[in-house]
Every structure is written in structure tokens, then in C-alpha cells.
Amino acid sequence: MTQVKKFWPILTGTHRYEKTLSTRNHGAGVIIDAPILAYLIETSNGRILYDVGCDYTKIADPVLRKQFYEHEGFPFGPPQMTEEQRLPNRLAELGLQKEDIDVVFCGHLHFDHAGGVCEFCGAEVHVHEKELEAAREPADEAYFKEDFDCPVNWRVYTGEYDLVPGVRAIETPGHTAGHMSMMIELPKGSPILLAGDAADLRENLEREIAPGLCYRDDETQALESIRKLKRLALETGADLWPNHDMAFFESKNRFPKFFE
């Protein structure tokens, strides 16, 4: 029986960029506004965050912003993130402090998903072994080693596993080496299957298009993971959520209200 009690998608910022970053070899010249999301899962055995967004200081500080975002590796510049959108401040709107988070689950370790991890030094931080290795290389420019300069309480895993009954980590490599999605069984209604960056947009799922950035520039695993997610959603009746689709997010946004 699921231990999940409540579920919130939380907007922590936006990033404006060419669509090809989300749909590989599709969308040249089309600019999209992508939500940067975290997901809060309240269970009878603690609170879990799937992803934690960007490091606010690297966006707000002009020197750090120039160092990390204003160069040829980021042709579309930094994300947009306000003080209000910092995840601890969003949690405060729910009457929570960052110390109330027990587990941070990083679907992967790119800057817009794990940059805020230092806000939650007291929590366990779950990550796939291959993902941590890729971040430490780093395997691509979307990994910021400096995001992990703080003391991080890593819990390193391989394979799929249940964090608690009703919350399951799903292996979906391809965008990155150790990318993980998550299945959440709600107490009411259909399960929610968070694709993470295995599928940025509904188009990635519907047309089976790989993300723009693929590990080692090979889309094979990414396409296999998209098909895996679609099969799993069909088998379980889960609602499959892409991760950077603004129209989809706005159709689901209830904050500060929740899903149950």
C-alpha cells in the first residue's frame, strides 16, 4: 500500500532557449520558455524532493552569472529565477522549512536539477552511481562541479528501487549516464510517472524524439528510455509527465494546493 499522502509540482524558475535543446534535431529557430521544476512528495515516512532546481547565487550574482552562464557554452544565457522562487521560499509557503526535507532525489545532476542541493545539506541525496561519475568528469557543460562544493550527504545507488512504498526510482539513461525517473502512487487517482529529462516535452513522448543533449552524443539509450516510460505508463495506468513543457505544467499547476 502506498505511503504517499500529498504531491506538489513546484515552479522554481524558467529557461528560455531554442527548442532543439529539448527535441534533438527538431525545432531550429523556435524559442521556448521551459519551466524548471521540483516535485515535493509527502509520505507517512517523511518528505522527498525530486530535483531541487538551480543554485540561485549563480544567477543573482553578476560575477558568478558571467562565469557560469554568459559564455559560448550557454548561447541562450542563464535561467530566470527570482528570490521568491528559491525552493526554501516555496516550501515556506507550505509552512515547511528546508530541514523538513528528508530525501532529495536527483533525477540527474545538471545545473537546473541539482544546483540547489546545497540548500538541503541535512537531507539524504539519492543519485545513480553512473550519474555521479558523469558529474565528476564532467561529461558535459550542464554539470557544474561547484554545485557540490558543500557537504552533500550522498546515497549512491544502482538499479531501480523503492524509496518508500509507493515511490519508485526508475532507470531511464540516455539524456545522461545515470538519469532516473520516478513513479508515484497517489492515495487517490492514477499514479504519476515523472519522466524527468528523459522527456522534456510531450512531443518527445508522442513522436519518440530524443532530448537534444544525449550522453556521449548517442540517442540510442534515450529513445529506449522513452519507449520504456510509455510501456510502463500503459501497464500501470500512470499519467506520464514531461519535465520542461510549460503548457503541460500550467495544466497541472495547483500550488499551493496539491494532488492526492
From TrEMBL:
Family stated for the protein in its record: Belongs to the metallo-beta-lactamase superfamily.
Record has Ion transport as a keyword: no
Required co-factors: Zn(2+)
PANTHER family according to UniProt: 102 KBASES UNSTABLE REGION: FROM 1 TO 119443, QUORUM-QUENCHING LACTONASE YTNP-RELATED-RELATED
Domain Metallo-beta-lactamase: 35-244
Statement: the UniProt record of this protein carries the keyword Amino-acid biosynthesis: no
InterPro entries attached to this UniProt entry: MBL_superfamily_lactonases (IPR051013), Metallo-B-lactamas (IPR001279), RibonucZ/Hydroxyglut_hydro (IPR036866)
Keywords: Hydrolase, Metal-binding, Zinc
Protein name: N-acyl homoserine lactonase family protein
Position of the signal peptide: none
